[in-house]
C-alpha cells in the first residue's frame, strides 16, 4: 500500500464548524493553540443546527447551572460583538407563559428570584395591557425576563469564524472526516487529507454518533427535524421587534407536549417565527425525507388560540435539526477512554446562546485545564445504562 501523506501536527483539531466548534476553535486560537477546524460542507451551509437568522438568548432556566453559565455567556457575546465590530444581540425581553401552579413554572420563578434576574411578574389583569394581541391560556401565569432577546445566528457564526482565522486558525471546509485514529497524537482522515492533533474536539451536531463510532463510543442521542415556521401578521408590525414585541415561550401547552416558542417579526418583515420545541426523528443526511407535519398541526391550534393577529397557516417553513439527549442537558466531557478527545454534543435545541461559554469550556478540556464551570450535569457517565461503549 502506498504510504499516505500525513500533514503537519496541530495542537488541536476541531471537527464541525457549527456554533460550538467555531467558538471552541476561536478560544483555542486565542490561547495560542495551533488549531484546525474541519467542516464537511462548504461554508456557509444550512444542513446542520446553527444556520438561520435568529436564536433566543435568555437566562430564564429552571436549573442554576444554566443560569450561571448564561451570566458569563452574555458577557462573552458582548465581548464578541466588540471584537467583531458587529451587532449580534438585540434585547427584546422574553415572555414566559406556563401553568401557574405547575412545578416547572414555579421552579422557574424561584430560580429567577434566587439569581436576582431582572424579571417582571405579570398579573392576569394587567397581561393584555403589557402584551397586546396575545391570549393567555386559562390557568397560565406570565413573567418577562427583561434582558432576554435575539441573537443574530448566521451573523454570529460568520463573525466567530472570521475572528478564529484572524488569530491564525485554519478552516478547511468541504472536507468530511471519514476516520479518527485515537492515540497520544490523534490522526484524523478526511476525504482529501490526513491531519494529526495533540487533542481532538468533536462538535459534529447531528453527526456526533457517526463520528464517535470511530472511537468505539455511542451516546443516547436522538436527531429530530424541526419545521421552522414563520406566520404572516394580519396587520404588518403587530408582533414586530420595532413594536417591542418580546420573544416568548409557552411551557408545555398540554400534558405530554413540548414548549412552543416564538420570536418577534424581524428577519422576514411581516412574518413571525413560531416553532414547536420537538420534531420527528431523522437521519441527519436524510433530513428532507422526513415530512411529518404533526408539529405544524399543534402550532396551527396554538396560533389560532393564542396569537389572533397571525394568519394560522405557516407562510414559510424552513428546516433545522436538534440533537436531543434523554434529559435534554448537553454533553460536555472528555471521551471515557481517550482523555485527549473532547466531546460537545446533544445541545437539545437550546445550545446556541451558550456558544461562547461552551467554546471556552471545551477549549479548557482540550488544553488539559480544569474547566471554569462545574461540568457534572454534562458528563457522559450519567447515561451509564445508555452509553454503549464497544471498547
Ligand atoms: C430550529 C432551531 C431553533 C433553535 N432555537 C434556539 C434558540 O432559540 N436558542 C438557543 O440557544 N438555541 C437554539 N437552537 C439550538 C442551537 O441552534 C443548537 O444547539 C446549536 O446550533 C448546535 O450547534 P452545533 O455546533 O453543536 O451543531 P451544528 O451546527 O450542527 O454543527 C455541527 C457541524 O459539524 C459538521 N460535521 C458533522 N460531521 C462532520 C464530518 N464527518 N466532517 C466534518 N464536519 C462534520 C456539520 O456539517 C456541522 O456543520 C435551535 C436549533 C434549531 C434547529
Ligand atoms: O433555546 C431557546 O431559548 C429556544 C426557545 C425555547 C425552546 C428551545 N429554543
Task: Write structural notes for this entry.
With 391 residues, the protein is α+β, with helices and mostly antiparallel strands. The protein has 2 domains: 9-50 and 154-218 and 327-385, 3-Layer(bba) Sandwich (FAD/NAD(P)-binding domain); 94-146 and 222-324, D-Amino Acid Oxidase, Chain A, domain 2 (2-Layer Sandwich). Helix content is 25%, strand content 30%. It has 8 helices and 22 strands. The strands form 4 sheets. Strands 5, 6, 7, 14, 15, 16, 17, 18 and 19 form a 9-stranded mixed sheet that branches. Strands 1, 2, 9, 10, 11, 12, 20 and 21 form an 8-stranded mixed sheet that branches. A 3-stranded antiparallel sheet has the order 3-8-4. Helix 1 links the parallel strand 1 and strand 2. It is globular and about 65 Å long. The two termini are 28 Å apart. It comes from Sinocyclocheilus rhinocerous. One of its GO terms (molecular function) is sarcosine oxidase activity. Residues 11-365 form the FAD dependent oxidoreductase domain.
Task: Give the SSE layout.
Elements: E1 9-15, H1 19-30, E2 35-38, E3 54-57, H2 64-84, E4 89-91, E5 94-99, H3 103-114, E6 119-122, H4 124-130, E7 140-145, E8 149-152, H5 153-166, E9 170-172, E10 177-181, E11 186-190, E12 194-202, H6 208-212, E13 217-218, E14 222-233, E15 247-250, E16 260-263, E17 271-276, E18 280-281, H7 294-306, E19 310-324, E20 331-334, E21 341-345, H8 355-366, E22 388-389
Parallel strand pairs: 1-2, 1-12, 2-9, 5-15, 12-21
Antiparallel strand pairs: 3-8, 4-8, 5-7, 6-7, 10-11, 11-12, 13-22, 14-17, 14-18, 14-19, 15-16, 16-17, 20-21
Helix pairs in contact: 1-5, 1-8, 2-8
The protein binds flavin-adenine dinucleotide and (2S)-piperidine-2-carboxylic acid.
Residues 15-21, 38-41, 47-50, 55-56, 176-177, 203-207, 211, 226, 228, 275, 320-322, 347, 349-353 line the site of flavin-adenine dinucleotide.
